[in-house]
Specification:
Elements: E1 3-7, E2 10-13, E3 18-25, E4 32-39, E5 46-52, E6 57-60, E7 68-73, E8 78-83, E9 92-100, E10 113-114, E11 118-123
Parallel strand pairs: 2-11
Antiparallel strand pairs: 1-3, 3-8, 4-5, 4-9, 5-6, 7-8, 9-10, 9-11
Length: 124
């Protein structure tokens, strides 16, 4: 059974930090694109950060560059999103997504698998 399980969401004050984790199971975990999307109420999901397993190729949306860092631990089949200097506008539902055997180069891609989401709340 394919699963992406997220954790690490929560509430934080502006300027604070959170680390999201996404652990995959039931899928090929080589040459895989894994990323994070976020969704505001009433809006479509938008790509935040992606990482391609081969070569650690990463990409970020402009709004988070310099504040968010995506990393991976292939042995644990886990991808992390370290979010620093959080702003109220970062508050959203964050989803992990994956596409095995797909070389992603930007944050604009169509995932094959999705996690259930984890809520991030940032208070001013």
């Amino acid at each position: 059974q394919v699963q992406l399980v997220e954790s690490g969401g929560g509430s934080v004050q502006a300027g604070g930090s959170l680390r999201l984790s996404c652990t995959a199971s039931g899928m090929t975990y080589s040459s895989i694109c894994v990323g994070w999307f976020r969704q505001y109420p009433g809006k479509e999901r938008e790509g935040v950060a992606t990482i391609y397993s081969d070569g650690d190729v990463t990409s970020y949306t402009d709004a988070v560059k310099g504040r968010f860092t995506i990393t991976r631990d292939n042995a644990k089949r886990t991808v992390y999103l370290q979010m620093n200097s959080l702003r109220p506008e970062d508050a959203a539902m964050y989803y992990c997504a994956a596409y095995p055997l797909f070389r992603c180069r930007t944050t604009a891609w169509d995932p094959k698998y999705w996690g259930q989401g984890t809520q991030v709340t940032v208070s001013a």
